[in-house]
């Protein structure tokens, strides 16, 4: 396996610093940077008009002052939403970020990103990949990008855009399936992103043995997560980057 030289950070701020700012926004990424995080995890999807945006859910109800499905919305409509006030009045007026705006900020801050290709129910993984992958390959250097997904088709199609040495692909799993090794080979995966609480030590060992980097989502208690460092975890994808940073500064992992 030929893989890019990616220096994975011990902590990755999940959806930006999502316990301190509205998730998946420019503010959340700035907050992560201020808290000392050098990488963020973000979700990308397409609006109905094909515009790639940074957003987690299939609809806008939970994280905005509006309602409705993302795939029924165009860019001008998306920009009428306030995506900050639900989190706190200090964030009132925050707008849903386009992928382009987010990439510009990541480059300004020189941050790395684990970009998750989020395939919501009823969304087309191929359309998502065709819009997003060329843009991120153009915008980001190899060593600051890991593209991940729960969606096998999205990962397979992403691989057709770049070789393993140029594009790190991460397979997201809730529970590790029996055929994870075959799935990894199929796309020449760089990493496996596992649910930290469901992962077993023997599975972690097998992942490391097979040569994949192990990233874990979404631990928020550094003490509870502690054993997973010795299992070979490279990164904790956390809503609490500040807690993890302080913990890592004082304990040996
Ligand atoms: O990429 C890790 C994690 O974000 C996967 O789950 O639902 O938070 O996108 P979710
Ligand atoms: Mg995600």
TrEMBL record:
Residues 9-248 form the GP-PDE domain. PANTHER family: GLYCEROPHOSPHODIESTER PHOSPHODIESTERASE, CYTOPLASMIC, GLYCEROPHOSPHORYL DIESTER PHOSPHODIESTERASE. PROSITE patterns: GP_PDE. It comes from Vreelandella arcis. This is Glycerophosphoryl diester phosphodiesterase. Gene3D superfamilies: Phosphatidylinositol (PI) phosphodiesterase (3.20.20.190). GO terms for biological process: lipid metabolic process. InterPro entries: GP_PDE_dom, PLC-like_Pdiesterase_TIM-brl. The lineage of its organism: Bacteria, Pseudomonadati, Pseudomonadota, Gammaproteobacteria, Oceanospirillales. GO terms for molecular function: phosphoric diester hydrolase activity.
